[in-house]
TrEMBL record:
Gene3D superfamilies xref list: Glycoside hydrolase/deacetylase (3.20.20.370)
Transmembrane segments: none
Upper classification of the organism: Bacteria, Bacillati, Actinomycetota, Actinomycetes, Kitasatosporales
Compositionally biased tracts (Basic residues): 122-131
Name under which the protein is recorded: Secreted protein
Biased composition regions of type Basic and acidic residues, renumbered to the chain: 25-35, 46-57
């Protein structure tokens, strides 16, 4: 099959929901079901044209776009419904309301964009045999305009808002946004419980990288950031697995938490997504058990030195007309407000009074995120800057270069890596390797799993070696807690962590720690580093000398 660079990951949409046109929706939407070549925008500062990914060379020294002549052709913007184990239709029918009225939701209107009901969500892992995958479409970035519902700055919803909620519910604590000044509060050695007891301040985060300014002529360290979208601890226990892998290999990671993964299904109408009815989401709400497990992993991850970022909440993506790619800055602010609130009010929302507070103040700790499907960064950046966030990881892709700021925050994109054995580059995320291996099928031929796992592992290592022996530009790896193609992408990442994080001069850090290091560097030095091609290894003493 023809190789392709894809721009993002699309969560599943339940057929028949407002955000999925139903069976055969790919054809209904004018989207081809067969594999296609996806065209990608050239992001290198010296290559602003459109180019086929197949034509992107992966020479060690200087990857460049081979520009196709003439104007860019129409782009196939496709979406992939990832396959997850789902509950039986009977169980789902028994558990989920069938109408907006049953769910306590507003009826569909032109303004709300349809029901957008809870059926449009990704299934949680069920304890039953795996099914063979269906053919799905593959996805990129583009949405239409929208008018989102205005939300209050505090925790949305109220007494009786969710199914099964009691008539009288204690009002949640007000949302405490990140301060505009990134300062560490004074620590007197006493833990301070915040709000309803969901979070607390227990002092500065332990085990953090101490940033040091480069000396004249000093070679930079090789930074590697492994990040995870969603961060739910479900029956596969991937969160705990990779938290332990990081700890065993002197690594820190960034876990981008989807806020509604701390919101019980019975209270789902506390979530008011832009352009959708209250309680709607394109991913499933978790079980109570999964919420408990996730809270424990969040606690342990922070104590290990890992970062808890955000993947926002409902995971709405194109072709949903209310996807994040169409949200205004104001709508992003409302989405961000709720991402804070679900962490800061989980005790009120869940009723779990037997659990200890999370050991961090989320208003201080939340400094960046990755938008679902990498959509909407243009309008998201001003919202992030207004809240004092330090970085954004929502760029759809770029070459391996030293980071720069965009809109006042550090821009950490997924990166193009040399694909093993092919004259193309692939974005540094599991889904993009999958598409180049099994196309739009998430459970491909098991006989090919060993080869695909080897290709994926070597693809990440190709990107690492190119930078490690070249410009030392940070390597960004983004992944999902998924079992696609037998879980080979999880194993490939684990192998890469073990292979690179203990090497000389390598620092496997969180995005927040990378911000700390970048912020203490001389801007002129960073500007020089950004002029290097990924595989370009200068005489460091002369290049960064006085």
């Amino acid at each position: 099959m023809t190789g392709a660079v894809l721009t993002g990951h699309r969560p599943p949409l339940a057929s028949g929901s407002a955000t999925a046109p139903g069976p055969g929706h790919a054809r209904d939407a004018g989207i081809r079901d067969d594999p296609v070549t996806v065209w990608a925008r050239g992001h290198h500062p010296r290559a602003g044209e459109w180019a086929r990914p197949e034509a992107v060379a992966h020479r060690t020294g200087s990857p460049r776009q081979q520009v196709a002549p003439g104007p860019p052709p129409p782009i196939k913007r496709l979406c992939m419904s990832t396959l997850r184990k789902r509950k039986s239709r009977a169980a789902a029918a028994a558990e989920e309301p069938r109408t907006a009225a049953d769910a306590g939701q507003a009826p569909a209107t032109a303004e709300t964009g349809g029901t957008g009901g809870p059926g449009a969500r990704r299934g949680l892992r069920a304890a039953r045999p795996r099914r063979r995958g269906r053919t799905c479409a593959v996805c990129g970035l583009l949405s239409t305009g929208l008018v989102g519902a205005l939300l209050t700055a505090g925790h949305p919803g109220g007494p009786g808002a969710g199914d099964g909620a009691k008539a009288a519910v204690k009002a949640p604590a007000p949302v405490r946004h990140a301060p505009t000044a990134r300062t560490t509060p004074p620590w007197d050695g006493e833990a301070k419980v915040i709000g309803d007891g969901s979070t607390s301040y227990t002092g500065p985060q332990p085990h953090q990288l101490k940033p040091e300014k480069l000396k004249p002529g000093q070679k930079p360290p090789q930074f590697v950031v492994f990040s995870w979208d969603g961060a739910l601890e479900n029956d596969d226990h991937f969160f705990s697995r990779f938290r332990k892998v990081a700890k065993a290999n002197d690594a820190h990671m960034t876990f981008f938490l989807s806020g509604i993964y701390l919101l019980p299904k019975a209270r789902r109408t506390l979530y008011h997504p832009p352009k959708h009815a209250p309680g709607s989401a394109a991913i499933d709400f978790p079980t109570d058990e999964h919420i408990r497990w996730t809270l424990e992993q969040l606690r342990l991850a922070w104590q290990d030195g890992d970062e808890i970022g955000t993947h926002f909440n409902g995971h709405f993506c194109a072709p949903d007309p209310g996807g994040g790619g169409t949200w205004t800055t104001g709508q992003w602010k409302k989405e961000m407000s709720q991402a804070y609130s679900f962490v800061q009010n989980w005790k009120t929302d869940t009723g779990f009074k037997d659990l200890a507070p999370l050991p961090f103040d989320y208003a201080q700790e939340l400094v960046g995120g990755r938008a679902p499907c990498l959509e909407g960064q243009k309008n998201l950046l001003p919202a992030e800057k207004a809240l004092g966030w330090r970085y954004d990881a929502s760029s759809p892709g770029d070459f391996q270069q030293w980071p720069a700021k965009k809109g006042g925050v550090w821009d950490f994109p997924l990166q193009l890596l040399p694909y093993p054995g092919k004259d193309l580059q692939v974005l540094s995320m599991d889904f993009n390797f999958l598409y180049n291996q099994s196309g739009d099928e998430t459970e491909g031929d098991p006989a090919r799993y060993p080869q695909w796992e080897k290709e994926t592992r070597q693809g990440y290592l190709n990107g690492f070696e190119r930078a490690y022996n070249g410009s030392r530009a940070p390597l960004f790896v983004g992944n999902h807690f998924e079992t696609w193609n037998g879980g080979l992408y999880m194993q490939a990442v684990e192998d890469v962590v073990k292979a690179v994080c203990t090497k000389k001069d390598v620092r496997c850090v969180s995005f927040k720690e990378l911000c700390d290091w970048l912020d203490v560097q001389d801007p002129a030095v960073l500007a020089k580093l950004r002029n290097l091609d990924p595989g370009e290894a200068p005489d460091w003493a002369a290049f960064l000398g006085k």
